[in-house]
Structure formats: C-alpha cells, structure tokens
Predict the structure.
Amino acid sequence: ITGVPGVWKTTVVTGALKRLEEEGISYKSLNFGTYMFETAQKQGQVTDRDEMRKMPRDAQKSLQQAAAQAMAREEGNILIDTHASVKTPKGFMAGLPEWVLRELQPDTIVLVETDEDQILLRRMSDETRTRDMEGVRAIADHQQFNRSIAASYSMLTGCTIKYIINADFLLDRAVEELAAVLG
Ligand code: AMP
Ligand code: MG
C-alpha cells in the first residue's frame, strides 16, 4: 500500500484490516518505514522517522534493503504500508526498486490518492509528524510520479496496480475498496 505523505493511507489500512477481521480474513500489516527506522535509530543515525528521507542516499538504500529482507521472511497474508517513491532533497527515490521487489514479490500495489489540496490541508493539520511543506503543484507532481513508477513495478513483477481515492468525507469508500482488493 503506497501513497504520498498525508493521504492518510495508514487510516485506510487500519479500517480495511478491521473490516477483513470481521469477515474472518486476517492480514499481518508491516510498516516499511518502521522496519527502517528501528535499524536507523539503533545505529544512532536518526531520532525521528521523518529524518530518514534526508539521509545520504546510500544510507537510505542499505536500510531499505535490510528492511525488505526482514519483511520477506514473514509468512501468511502480508500487507506492507510504504511509499511508491520517497521525496528526498536530491529527487525522488524509488520505494520499490528492483532489489526490493525481488524480495517482496508483491501481488498487487495499491496507490492511495486524493486531490492535492486535500493532502495539503491534512499535512497542515498533522502535528504528530514532521511533514514536508510544499505547494499543491509539487504534491500533484509527486502523485503523478508515483503512478508512473508503479507502472514500472508492474512491468518488473507482473503485479497489478490499483488506485484507491481517499477523498474527504469518503474514508468509508476507500476502506471498502481496499478491503475488496485484499479479500
Ligand atoms: P511513513 O511512516 O510511511 O511516512 O514512512 C517513514 C519513512 O520511512 C519515509 O519518509 C521514508 O524515509 C521511509 N520509507 C518508507 N518506505 C520506504 C521505502 N519503500 N523505501 C525507502 N524509504 C522508505
Ligand atoms: Mg503512515
């Protein structure tokens, strides 16, 4: 499951997993960023998960690789909360480069999206995270880049790509759609 920061993808995931649980379908949800952060924190590289995307590229890549290997060892129905691309100070970094896809072999990649003005407002209202402040144009570009790079992930793995819109006041609809994909 992917989506730009502030699209509230974790909220959609939580809702969908609860719905599936009610139907007797259980998924284990893993957070890619948390896997990376636990290592980065242990090694004293960062103290906040939002600092990771500013780390040197090689450091991010090695955390990314280690996280993918660790998650690949998990068994059963696995859902991974992550990013199609990460916005770093030096440009977009693929969230699922070839060596990560080889480990994870996803069946489906979901892109959670909504209008850029809604994302901007959600970022401004979130005090729990250090979100990058950027304009609507930049947010729209990031979402567009994510669609493009997702197409290449499908080419590499044969996975399907699903767009889910998480619009204001329509969280239920997004939850429903994600549950349908996972179920
Ligand atoms: P999140 O909590 O989903 O916003 O993730 C926190 C941070 O983890 C992101 O800002 C990235 O620095 C990092 N991260 C998460 N997924 C990936 C990925 N697939 N590749 C590289 N970095 C990632
Ligand atoms: Mg999240």
Observations:
- The chain has seven helices and six strands.
